[in-house]
Sequence to fold (325 residues):
Amino acid sequence: MKQQHHPIDLRTYQKGVNSDSNKEILGSDDKGTYVDALNMRNLSMDGNNYASKKIKGEEVLYENIDNRCIGGTGLPLSGNYICMMSQEINDHIVEIWASETPLSNPPLFRADGKIVAYSFDIPIDINNPLQYDKNESCIGGEFYVTNNNTPPMVFSLKDLMVNSGMLPGSTCTQKYFEDFNIDEFVIQTTGTLYKPAFIKQISGIASSFFDGVFGSLGLAVGSYSYSYRYVTTDGDRTPFSPITELIPVVRNASAQFNPYFPNSRTFGSDANTTSVSPYGNHIRIRYDNDANFSFIEIRRDAWYAADAIDVPPVSEIIGSVFYFC
Fold:
């Protein structure tokens, strides 16, 4: 074969790169050139191999209005909604939005600009960014959502659209609106859970041999129960364990003048969360870390406000135990 030689093409840039001076024909120099342009592509598109072609830039596809099939007002949505997810699933654009004012503006899902889910019970907020994925191989497509705060959730795009009346022959329902039930969509991590055991009430400074001591003051007069769940480093959480029996906390307990166990006299008082008792509850938890969880979260349910019988307790995560054998 005969060796071929080509002339060296040298270019210098003393005044910067060429600007987008020709709006219709970009890169027309037959010797090649670098073009600084806005709103253009130079990749293969519509059969034009590596040809610079103008594009239209961004455009608004859907109006930001309340277009729910039931209860939709047709008015603009609050301006403080933030897009938490946007992805294309089987040629449909699916979005999740959460508001900076969640008490008045619930999270919502949209499919092709149509609100398909709208409920205060959707556990998504702007303080916990979403991780998400999709599956387009199943009928209608589905997507997965988690935020390192709640159990992972899975939603069927087709079911969302059917229950919003978007597909032929479908009827709008309240499934993803007033009747939304998060338990139907969560994927729970499993683990072996046992019922915690109440050991005793203690007063004063807790002993250092406890695996976890939560709080430095006593509990308010009332009744308490406890449960726990496992958590992974990725934020996956199991359901809560069975709860303990209700544990009463009184203002004062005394065994004075009487040897009977555990106390011969107890003194209650009116509900007052600002005036605590000297007592705390010692709870023992049995666990099997067979799934390599990272830590345990402890939940306390408290009845201390003298509410009616049907009023739910004040439930909160009071702490975590990070040490696993």
Remarks:
- The radius of gyration is 31 Å.
- The chain has three domains: 1-59, 81-184, 197-321.
- The mean pLDDT is 82.
